[in-house]
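User: I'm new to structure prediction. If I give you an amino acid sequence, what do you actually give back? Let's try with this one:
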Amino acid sequence: MSELHDECGVFGIFKNNDELDIVEETYLALYALQHRGQIGAGIAVNDNGHMKYYKDFGMIPEALPEAELARLGNGKIALGHVKYSSGETVDRANLAPLVMRYIKGQLALCMNGALTNYPELHDELKHGAAIFQSNGDTEIIAYLIARARIDHPSIEDAVCTAVKKLKGAYAAVLMSPSKLIGVRDPMGIRPLCYGKIGDNYVIASESCVFDSLGGEFIRDIKPGEVLVIDDEGVHSYLYQQSDKTALCMFEYVYFSRPDSIVDGVSVIKARQRAGRILAQLHPIEADIVCGVPDCGIESAIGYSMESGIRYATGLIKNKYIGRAFNNRKKNEEYLMRIKLNALKYNVEGKKVIVIDDSILKGKTSKHIVELLRQAGAKEVHMLIASPPFKNSCYLASDTTPQENLIASNHTEEQICQYIKADSLGFLTVESMREIAKECNIDMCDACFTGHYPLDVSDTSREDKYSQKIKD
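Assistant: Good question. You get back a string of structure tokens that encode the predicted 3D arrangement of the chain. For your 471 residues, that looks like this:
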């Protein structure tokens, strides 16, 4: 149960079948992406160039009530977005999709990512008389596209020009009056793919959306690609090619749903492979192996298959905790106790191996070990399906500051003592790459190695967003 959070999930649909309920399909798609964002959600609908939208805080049923969705009507194109909390000030203006009017009509946009050159772009636009309604990256991109559109004959030309000014990680979906457009950053740090539901084209953060809607996955959008969908079909433009690519490794460890395929690799296969490699690196005599819900479970199954040790449920997660509860002013230990319980029937008197996806501050891991001991576990051995997390992420993952990352200033032995486990083991960076060796592009391992795929020397989330708020 990682303390790491991705910032959001995006979805877009272009309707070619008049019988399709475009709002209903978008609503269901956001359910499939709920794991990528639980702080807020929104839907925008394009009916012949007129755009209506609704967005609010909470998980899907709370944020998008049926009465509000009914007011959106039906249209040709729709966007959907789910948001996680991040360094941004979380107010309604930072929810997406962002819908704006400009010289060519209306434009709607949503994104997953973070711009490392936000302050520079914000300052440039501000001195050009831009008036900002939010302190988010999405509005920066929208302004750049709107400004580029003045000098370009088509929206796709304007998008290709505008996004060349961006630095960082981003996967964005936008709609003009007549087109649906998907954009992926030149390094492919954030995932984006497209598929079909019958005759209708869809763009989404993950391929699990297409399965949920009864559609088909076509392919991942390439790093540096702008994909345009209109009445004539699908058009691809490579606006910028990078010498290197850097898909975030945590898509396989934590962010993506197990039933997704990300850049050619099955997520569930990668997680089970991580468990198999853990069994080879850290053989332990134990009675059962269990996983921390949700992302440690498949790795625990992989460990069981490789080692022959029986897999059993050791921890139960409360799946019904919503935003309102998480926002209550309670301490971390209280919240962790509500979220997780140990299954005494399975662990009492047993030597237990417990597998989690990562350790950040270490408090959750310590709590898990304590839960299992209180339930009567004879021994608790903790294994982690990733290497030690030593460095903050500046590329769209909401992490604690580096000084709070326990692996950045403690040895593995010291971490083991802190969480009070009988033993502790991690994957190596080399073995981490092995779990997704079929990946179509290279991967970013900066959180483990400190080798960032682009310059982040002048970037920190704290400084970045304090600058936003001051402006």
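You can read the tokens as a compact description of the fold. Here is one thing that stands out. The domain at 266-440 is CATH 3.40.50.2020 (Rossmann fold).
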